[in-house]
Design goal:
- By secondary structure, this protein is an alpha/beta fold.
- The chain has one domain: Alpha/Beta hydrolase fold, catalytic domain (Rossmann fold, 3-Layer(aba) Sandwich).
- It contains 11 helices and 8 strands.
- Strand 1 and strand 2 form a beta hairpin.
- The longest helix has 15 residues.
- The protein starts with a strand and ends with a helix.
Length: 264
């Protein structure tokens, strides 16, 4: 188990691959830990330095009291990369992880050479939606949100054919610390990255599942259109977590993007 003390919290992380490999950093979604990338990693190109971490309030990382701010999450990512001596990485962010990617690229361009934005946007939802969700968690715990969340996360086919695996994702979501879920929800609610993301010029690819009920394809496309030269790809038969439902296809898109941009 690898832990780093950064920004007065302990962050759980994992590093796989050679020390001199091209660095690829993964930031996961709300209500998941870094195991959300497990199915994707075996399909990634060989020789990479693959770095995953649990953002504050999730997984085995510390759970500070809410509220959190997007600046906190961006600074955590930056501090971990500084701790690991990583610069010029490909940063792959899923949902809130994609918001972290956008903020990090704007604030610390030395750390991010290119981005993959998966199922994310410059702004997700509104303050009223997130306030209702926070209130529901405070009253009934995350389990009270589990079923509608899983409907948004996964495709119809996954719900029909992967009931056993679906139970595991329900457990991961429900066992997320309530304070961490609330804190990150509040961070999303107050974040609008439109202006800073529109100024970005680094190589970027946007990916979205065709059945994403959280950040639908049109929302992700709007964010992709803000970044000059950004590629946009829709992965069929996938919801909000294409790295889970279609890992080989997603890894193939990432590998092609890396090759086209001389990454690694």
């Amino acid at each position: 188990m690898q832990m780093a003390t950064i920004n007065n919290i302990k962050v759980h992380y994992s590093v796989e691959g050679p020390d001199n490999g091209f660095p690829v950093v993964f930031a996961n979604s709300l209500g998941t830990d870094f195991r959300v990338w497990d199915a994707l990693l075996p399909h990634m190109p060989e020789g990479l330095r693959l770095i995953r971490y649990d953002k504050r309030g999730h997984g085995l990382s510390d759970v500070p009291d809410a509220p959190y701010y997007m600046g906190d999450l961006v600074q955590d990512a930056a501090a971990l990369m500084d701790f690991l001596g990583v610069k010029g990485a490909l940063f792959i962010g899923l949902s809130i992880g994609g918001m972290i990617a956008q903020g990090l690229a704007a604030e610390r361009p030395d750390l991010v050479r290119a981005m993959v934005l998966s199922d994310t946007a410059t702004k997700i939802g509104n303050e009223q939606i997130w306030a209702k969700r926070v209130d529901a968690v405070r009253k009934g715990g995350i389990a009270s949100l589990a079923e509608p969340t899983l409907q948004r996360w996964f495709s119809k086919g996954f719900h029909a054919d992967k009931q056993d695996e679906l139970a595991g994702w329900r457990h991961m979501l429900s066992r997320t610390p309530a304070e961490g879920y609330i804190g990150c929800s509040q961070a999303i609610a107050e974040t609008d990255l439109y202006v800073s993301t529109a100024r970005l010029t680094l190589p970027t690819m946007a990916i979205v599942g065709s059945e994403d009920g959280s950040t639908p394809p049109d929302m992700v496309r709007e964010t992709a259109d803000l970044i000059a030269g950004c590629q946009f790809n829709v992965i069929r038969k996938a919801g909000h977590l294409p790295c889970v439902e279609q890992p080989a296809e997603m890894a193939g898109l990432i590998a092609s993007f890396m090759k086209e941009n001389n990454l690694g």
